[in-house]
Amino acid sequence: MRNFYFFAILSLALFSCKSETEKEPVPQVVWEANDETAELEEQALHENERMRFKLINSRFLDKNTIWNSFDVELANFSAKIQPKMGKLTFRRLSFYAEIESG
Question: Which of 34-48, 67-81, 86-100 is least confident?
Fold first, then answer.
């Protein structure tokens, strides 16, 4: 009977542990350029002249090169923030907001 408990505990310990290599890969979001002509035509009709854009996104700057430097930090962001978010409640968040605004 003692051997059974030992084997059961040992098997639970071995199968419940996950190694770092077993993590699911985070899909990388790739920004793709799109045709902005319809959006620019809509903006041309805006009543405020300052809101009539000539360009929505940069023609020269690729957003993928900007965000590539943050991929490492963002890859495990949800795993890092999850323990901290579990401790927060709506009451604690709203109480903090009341202190800040009051």
Answer: 86-100
- The Cα 81–Cα 95 span in angstroms is 21
CA-closest candidate to residue 39, choices 63, 62, 56, 51: 56
Q: What is the pLDDT of residue 50?
A: 92
| Alpha-carbon distance values, 76 to 20, 68, 73, 81 (Å) | 12, 14, 7, 9
pLDDT band at 71, cuts 50/70/90?
confident
* Closest listed residue to residue 98, CA positions, set 90, 81, 88: 90
Give the closest residue to 71 by CA, choosing from 24, 40, 26, 13: 26
Cα-atom radius of gyration of the chain, to the nearest Å?
A: 26
Q: Which residue blocks in 1-102 are alpha helix, DSSP H?
A: 2-16, 37-44, 63-67, 71-75, 77-86, 90-101
